[in-house]
Design brief:
Blueprint lengths: L2 E8 L12 E8 L7 E9 L4 H5 L16 E8 L9 E4 L6 E4 L4 E3 L17 H13 L8 E3 L5 H12 L5 E5 L2 H9 L5 E4 L5 H8 L4 E6 L3 H10 E9 L21 H4 L3 E4 L9 H14 L6 E5 L4 H10 L5 E5 L1
Parallel strand pairs: 8-9, 8-11, 9-10, 11-12, 12-13, 14-15
Antiparallel strand pairs: 1-2, 3-4, 3-6, 3-15, 4-5, 5-7
This protein binds NADP nicotinamide-adenine-dinucleotide phosphate.
């Protein structure tokens, strides 16, 4: 039997920050699964800042008038594949849609982790948490007793990074975020030692007050003024794991990409290294092993902002760019 589904298509290219009129909701029908395939009913969709860069690239970006690529978790509801029995939980990138027909190669079967919600696989246990984990461990080599600064600290990667740093033995954990409510959440509920609202003054001054003795590791999600301030606050032999630069995404006049104080990397033997989480998928099992017990016990939280209903997908995407989220931004279908 065919199944009705709804998808989000990109229908126009942006000029500057993405707006709602670039997208359209499109209804269709999926045929019953053919041999070797299965029908997935999505439960949660991820909306991610990196998608901005793919909206305006004529080559290599999203094709117009097709479902957007994007991560989702869901369960098999109909199957003609022995590898994907009905009820199996999967994660896939078939895009912003309610249902998808997939082969086993197009999905990753999720482990059933008792006491851990499915949505965590798009947040702290998924690519978001893995970015924080890889940034702190493989890229920055955070050691017990060292001090961390993370920007966009109240977002998906940031909330994961602060909590992971604690598990990894960090001494002082400092974050920046875009509102007083977010900084209160970081210090009150997530165990950050200090947090500041970057709107309250020059970031260098706010960081100097929050981390008066300097920092050893910076996980950069923002770029621009934040990166420059973090270089200024770095101790000798500090490390910067450059994860993202949201202050520069889709902005008509972005801040200078290169900080003015770059030469301080030389004078204080600081290492700056960018990374993409997709080159580190082999760390996924390590992340499960580290976090699953703490998620079950409640020592680690999986903060998320969930908009209810597929029709709010575009709102959620525009919202994550504007800071409407605390924790990972998701859509529940
Ligand atoms: P997120 O942090 O949950 O959401 C983005 C946050 O950025 C917003 O909530 C907003 O919070 C903040 N923001 C927006 N504009 C800003 C600005 N001009 N200055 C400072 N903060 C701003 O998103 P995420 O998915 O966890 O991603 C965080 C970063 O990691 C992004 O840069 C993303 O591209 C990057 N990333 C990289 C990889 C990789 O493989 N390298 C993988 C995943 C994510 P406020 O209210 O605090 O402003």
């Amino acid at each position: 039997m065919s199944v009705p589904f709804r998808a989000v298509h990109q229908i126009a290219r942006p000029t500057g920050r993405p707006t709602a009129d670039l997208f359209a909701f499109v209804d269709g029908e999926l045929p019953a699964p053919a041999a070797g395939t299965a029908l997935i009913e999505n439960a949660f969709l991820s909306v991610d800042p990196y998608m901005v860069g793919l909206l305006d690239e004529e080559e290599g970006g999203y094709p117009l008038n097709a479902p957007l690529e994007g991560r989702a978790v869901g369960r098999v509801v109909e199957s003609r594949s022995t590898a994907l029995p009905v009820g199996t939980a999967v994660i896939h990138r078939e895009g912003w849609r309610t249902h998808a027909l997939v082969t086993p190669e197009q999905v990753r079967v999720l482990p059933e982790l008792p006491g851990v919600p499915l949505s965590a696989h798009l947040g702290i246990l998924g690519g978001t948490g893995l970015s924080a984990y890889v940034g702190l461990t493989r890229v920055a080599g955070l050691k017990p007793g060292e001090d961390l600064f993370v920007s966009a600290a109240a977002g998906g990667v940031g909330t994961a990074a602060g909590q992971l740093a604690r598990l990894l033995g960090a001494r002082r954990v400092v974050g920046s975020a875009g509102s007083a409510a977010k900084t209160a959440f970081l210090t009150g509920e997530l165990g950050f030692d200090a947090a500041f609202d970057y709107h309250d003054g020059p970031v260098a001054e706010l960081l100097a007050a929050a981390a008066p003795d300097g920092i050893d590791v910076y996980l950069d999600n923002v770029g621009g003024e934040h990166l420059e301030a973090a270089i200024g606050a770095m101790r000798d032999f500090g490390r910067i794991a450059w994860c993202g630069a949201i202050s520069q995404y889709g902005v008509a006049t972005p801040p200078p990409a290169a900080p003015h104080n770059l030469f301080e990397l030389v004078t204080r033997s600081i290492r700056l290294e960018g990374f993409l989480v997709r080159h580190h998928m082999d760390a996924q099992q390590e992340l499960y092993a580290l976090l699953a017990p703490h998620l079950r016990s409640g020592r680690v939280l999986s903060p998320q902002t969930v908009l209810d209903g597929f029709d709010r997908t575009v709102e959620a995407f525009l919202g994550v760019l504007a800071g409407a989220n605390t924790g990972k931004m998701l859509v529940e279908i």
